[in-house]
């Protein structure tokens, strides 16, 4: 199985992520894919960069799946690093290769097919998206197979999908975000996406929140950056020692976040469909 990871981060943000977590977002996502499907071969493309290209000799049609990462960019900003990613997603749709995306990935896929993205009028959703609830369509959809009637997931986003394209369906929502999961069908392609981050371990989420400490304090999530440091320490400790029920209880975290198989369920469901052959192709 050959998977293309589309790392949506610009170069400076990729390096900050590497400095805090030890891997770029694309490398971290590839590691999650390899943990789920050890035989998968993952290539990474960096379309925020002006000189980005697929690996030599590769075409989109040579991949079994395309996965889009998150990004600190805003898809409604008309700048080259954004336009390249929207155009790449349009090419993915045209290729017919099944695709999946987290957060920014969902937003880019929506815009590439005719939807819109705006800042969330309710503000930032960060840490964990709480009580994500599958829609009627989502309860029977393969993307969310195995999820309960309500669940939490790692997240960090300021923007949301405001309107979906014509051939799309909302699969899950919560109080903060109307489109937490969706399927988009466009041209020859099928995209499954989530606004949250099933790929994030607690340690990766901690690294991101640590990097955002000043902003999170300014926005009122914490009284000051030192409180962010305590929260980050809790996440890292719990990731290293899942027996710390005191920390899990304090932050209201259950197996939907703490069990790796449950946390990454949407990625597992997507890859299983891709491994089945042409099950997701139009």
TrEMBL record:
Give the record's GO CC terms: cytosol
Gene Ontology MF annotations: GMP synthase (glutamine-hydrolyzing) activity
Q: What is this protein called?
A: GMP synthase (Glutamine-hydrolyzing)
Q: What is its EC number?
A: 6.3.5.2
Source organism of this protein record? Chelatococcus composti
The yes or no answer to whether the keyword Amino-acid biosynthesis is present is no
Q: Keywords in UniProt for this one? A: Ligase
Q: Which Gene3D superfamilies does the record cross-reference, listed alphabetically? A: 3.40.50.880
In this protein, which residues make up the domain named Glutamine amidotransferase?
Answer: 45-205
């Amino acid at each position: 199985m050959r998977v293309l990871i589309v790392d949506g981060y610009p170069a400076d943000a990729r390096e900050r992520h590497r400095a805090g977590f030890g891997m770029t977002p694309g490398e971290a996502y590839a590691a999650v894919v390899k943990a789920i499907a050890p035989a998968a071969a993952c290539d990474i493309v960096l379309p925020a960069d002006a000189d980005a290209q697929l690996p030599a000799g590769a075409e989109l049609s040579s991949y079994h799946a395309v996965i889009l990462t998150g990004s600190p960019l805003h898809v409604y900003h008309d700048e080259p690093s954004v336009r390249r990613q929207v155009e790449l997603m349009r090419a993915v749709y045209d290729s017919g290769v099944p695709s999946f995306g987290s957060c920014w990935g969902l937003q880019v896929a929506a815009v590439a097919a005719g939807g819109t993205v705006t800042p969330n009028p309710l503000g930032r959703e960060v840490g964990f998206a709480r009580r994500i609830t599958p829609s009627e369509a989502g309860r029977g959809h393969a993307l969310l197979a195995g999820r309960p009637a309500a669940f939490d997931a790692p997240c960090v986003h300021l923007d949301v999908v405001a309107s979906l394209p014509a051939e799309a369906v909302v699969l899950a929502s919560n109080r903060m975000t109307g489109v937490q999961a969706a399927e988009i069908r466009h041209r020859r392609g099928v995209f499954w996406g989530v606004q949250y981050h099933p790929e994030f371990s607690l340690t990766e989420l901690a690294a991101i929140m640590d990097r955002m400490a000043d902003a999170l304090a300014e926005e009122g999530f914490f009284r000051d950056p030192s409180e962010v440091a305590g929260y980050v320490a809790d996440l890292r400790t719990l990731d290293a020692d899942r027996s710390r029920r005191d920390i899990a209880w304090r932050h209201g975290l259950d197996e939907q976040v703490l069990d790796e198989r449950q946390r990454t369920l949407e990625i597992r469901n997507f890859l299983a469909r891709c491994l089945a052959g042409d099950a997701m192709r139009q």
